[in-house]
Amino acid sequence: MSKNRIETLVDGIFAIAMTLLVLDLAVPNLNVPLSNMVIQHALYGLLPSFISLVVSFVLLAMFWNIHHRIYSQIKSVNTTLLWVNMIWLLFIVLVPFSASLNGNYGDFTISDIIFNINMMGIAVVLFLNVYIINRSDFLHENADMAQLKSSEKSTLIFIAIALAALLLAFIAPRWGNLVYLLIFPLEMLIDR
Predict the structure, then answer these.
(1) Taking the domains of the chain in order of start, what are their residue ranges?
(2) For residue 74, which phi and psi values (nearest 5 degrees)?
(3) Which of 38, 76, 126, 181 is the most buried (most CB within 10 A)?
(4) Is residue 7 a contact partner of residue 65, using CB atoms and an 8 Å limit?
């Protein structure tokens, strides 16, 4: 099967999932006398949902980028790789739900656990994607093996960070997700 079919589906699902993230950010409907202070207080109430949206959007962007880097190195896919991608996309479409849950109820451990399991699922299945591709004949003859190795390391870092965030959910709900900020410096180290 042509890899272009999967790439098109991935692009479409990511576009939809990333757009759906904003639906949790509704303009407050205020039924009290309005003032700057009332509106400001209502907007502060949206801050956890906004932070969840930004974190989720950036993580999805990074996952999409890794997938794009991987698939630029291959020429075709088989049924196994197709279904690994379908399972991966299942975790992707769950992100708007887990991000909304985390934004609205991030002070509770269960919502952080669900969000972090969602992120870990994405990272683990993406690693499986890279693992299958690296050990098969899907690669172009001029594939950049360094880029594939970098993608494999990036997914391992995502798995480790999601695991750390999952453990922190039991200690400091809501704040444990800040561990995802480690992705940026670690990603830069890998690229060097």
Answers:
(1) 3-191
(2) -115, 165
(3) 126
(4) no
Burial label for 42, CB within 10 Å (0-12, 13-18, 19+), is middle
User: Phi-psi region for residue 32, left (φ > 0), alpha (ψ -120 to 50) or beta?
Assistant: beta
Half-sphere exposure of 128 (CA within 13 A, CB side): 15
The answer to whether the beta carbons of residues 15 and 50 sit under 8 Å apart is no
Instruction: Give the Cα separation of 27 and 43 in Å (integer).
Output: 8
Q: How large is the greatest C-alpha to C-alpha distance in the chain, in angstroms? A: 68
Query: Whole-structure pTM over 0.70, yes or no?
Result: yes
H or E stretch at 192: none
DSSP code, position 136? S
Q: State the Cα–Cα distance between residues 144 and 133, nearest whole angstrom.
A: 13
